[in-house]
């Protein structure tokens, strides 16, 4: 590590809506061009840096590596953490793939089968399989326990230089190639299930966490595709002046980052796909990564320099000592205190962000334990006339979540009137895509079954009510007759008694 040095630099810009400290950004010199940076998904969020023939593990605030993996004869590529943070996999120039335990040093497994350098490696979401892509044009799938090859796909016509795995489906992974194509593979099939033409050599790909949107980068372009619609192009972004080399999403999925050989990192809003911020660096960028909490951004450059910046801690707000009278306003059927600390969904409603407000109340804590809040927001959006737009444009996972909630809660009398309207709008919007997703189709059937059962139940109740009305009417009539007879008998007896007297 004698070649490593540290320089403190001023901050370049704000990231998203939060600023990074202008006193802590550092530059760390690596032994070669930094081809991959990957943060561990578990605390304390160390990150792996692949450069030259080494993989260095850094602590978030460390300026020297806390661990090094150097069992490579030549260059190492693409070191990637598993979802539990316990294992690390990397490709190599000699064509082999090595699997490391982050607490050890020697490789746990070595996978041999590629004939040329392996630049792409990663774990499928089941954690027991690895996918890879190499310069021999092949994309392979490997079994970790047995260290054997499961299947090899030879569908690309040029180097395979990027890839990612679905977090939703454990059998799906994606590769991008210099043959200008992106291919989606399903481990249960013998060939790719989708091919997307990017139009330029593909340098980086990523999937949104929901699995419905795919982003590809190559040439000067960043393109967003709708996987659920068969790879339909949604937007093509051309904001860089040279080749885009890397992509990254922030933890909420609201910001997309792209790095380029033009020395810039562009930050896009994923709602409008407009550039909201830009960083400028001294050298061409090969890799970038954000920590899981968006607290640290690390940039890897062609000259072997790592640039690390940490987000500025939010200043504590000084509470006002002045007492203010609580003001109240009516929202749906709830009365809420109008204070400075609004709920997340309330803030989004105040700023007319309908879709995000609906997303906020579909989060598990609210959806599962306070469904009345979710339905109240849906009712408010319907009153405003924005419910249709809030429900539209959602991917497979989100539609599945909506249908699950509606099917489960529509039978509750307090929610029925609102959720029947929601179900009608969802059906109208997503009817054209019925048959394209087994998950969504299954939820539509569940919703149909739930509503059908409720209708049958209501009909049975009406029949029972009809019978009960008839029974009550008969009972009332009989009771009245008995009373009249008793009164008549009593009156006669009285008269008779008086006469006797």
From TrEMBL:
Subcellular location as annotated: Nucleus, Nucleolus
Alphabetical UniProt keywords: Nucleus, Repeat, rRNA processing, Signal, WD repeat
Signal peptide: 1-18
Domain (U3 small nucleolar RNA-associated protein 15 C-terminal): residue spans on this chain: 337-471
Keyword match Signal: yes
WD repeats: 111-152, 237-278
Main location: nucleus
Keyword rRNA processing: yes
CC annotations in GO: nucleolus
Biological process according to GO: positive regulation of transcription by RNA polymerase I; rRNA processing
Assembly notes: Part of the small subunit (SSU) processome, composed of more than 70 proteins and the RNA chaperone small nucleolar RNA (snoRNA) U3. May be a component of the proposed t-UTP subcomplex of the ribosomal small subunit (SSU) processome.
Described purpose of this protein according to its UniProt entry: Ribosome biogenesis factor. Involved in nucleolar processing of pre-18S ribosomal RNA. Required for optimal pre-ribosomal RNA transcription by RNA polymerase I. Part of the small subunit (SSU) processome, first precursor of the small eukaryotic ribosomal subunit. During the assembly of the SSU processome in the nucleolus, many ribosome biogenesis factors, an RNA chaperone and ribosomal proteins associate with the nascent pre-rRNA and work in concert to generate RNA folding, modifications, rearrangements and cleavage as well as targeted degradation of pre-ribosomal RNA by the RNA exosome.
Protein name: U3 small nucleolar RNA-associated protein 15 homolog
Originating organism: Bubo bubo
């Amino acid at each position: 590590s004698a070649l490593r040095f540290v320089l403190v630099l001023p901050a370049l810009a704000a990231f998203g809506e939060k600023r990074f400290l202008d006193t802590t950004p550092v530059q760390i010199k690596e032994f070669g061009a930094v081809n991959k940076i990957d943060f561990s998904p578990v605390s304390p969020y160390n990150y792996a840096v692949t450069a030259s023939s080494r993989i260095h593990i850094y602590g978030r605030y460390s300026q020297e590596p806390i661990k090094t993996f150097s069992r490579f004869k030549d260059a190492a590529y693409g070191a990637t953490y598993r979802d539990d943070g316990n294992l690390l996999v990397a490709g190599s120039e000699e064509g082999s793939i090595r699997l490391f335990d982050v607490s050890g040093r020697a490789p746990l497994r070595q996978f041999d089968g590629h004939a040329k350098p392996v630049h792409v490696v990663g774990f499928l979401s089941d954690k027991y399989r690895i996918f890879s892509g190499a310069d021999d044009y092949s994309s392979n799938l490997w079994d970790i326990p047995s260290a054997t090859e499961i299947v090899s796909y030879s569908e690309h016509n040029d180097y395979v230089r990027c890839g990612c795995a679905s977090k939703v489906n454990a059998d799906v992974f994606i590769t991008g190639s210099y043959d200008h194509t992106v291919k989606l593979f399903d481990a249960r099939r013998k060939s790719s299930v989708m091919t997307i033409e990017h139009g330029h050599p593909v340098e980086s790909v990523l999937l949104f966490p929901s699995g419905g949107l795919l982003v590809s980068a190559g040439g000067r372009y960043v393109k967003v595709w709708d996987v659920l619609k068969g790879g339909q192009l949604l937007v093509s972004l051309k904001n860089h002046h040279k080749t885009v080399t890397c992509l990254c999403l922030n933890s909420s999925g609201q910001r997309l980052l792209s790095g380029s050989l033009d020395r810039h990192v562009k930050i896009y809003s994923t709602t409008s796909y407009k550039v909201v911020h830009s960083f400028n660096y001294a050298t061409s960028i090969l890799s970038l990564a954000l920590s899981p909490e968006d607290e640290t951004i690390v940039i890897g450059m062609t000259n072997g320099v790592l640039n690390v910046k940490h987000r500025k801690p939010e200043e504590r707000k000084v509470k006002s000592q002045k007492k203010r009278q609580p003001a109240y306003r009516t929202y749906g059927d709830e009365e809420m205190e109008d204070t400075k600390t609004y709920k997340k969904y309330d803030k989004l409603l105040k700023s007319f962000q309908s879709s995000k407000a609906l997303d906020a109340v579909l989060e598990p804590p609210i959806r599962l334990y306070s469904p009345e809040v979710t339905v109240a927001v849906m009712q408010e959006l319907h009153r405003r006339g924005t419910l249709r737009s809030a429900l539209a444009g959602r991917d497979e996972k989100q539609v599945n979540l909506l249908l699950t909630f509606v099917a489960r809660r529509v039978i509750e009398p307090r929610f029925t009137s609102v959720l029947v309207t929601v179900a009608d709008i969802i059906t109208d919007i997503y009817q054209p895509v019925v048959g394209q997703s087994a998950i969504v189709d299954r939820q539509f059937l569940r919703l149909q079954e739930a509503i059908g059962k409720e209708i049958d139940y209501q009909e049975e109740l009406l029949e029972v009510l009809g019978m009960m009305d008839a029974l009550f009417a008969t009972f009332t009539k009989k009771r009245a007759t008995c009373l009249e007879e008793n009164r008549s008998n009593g009156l006669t007896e009285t008269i008779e008694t008086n006469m006797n007297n």
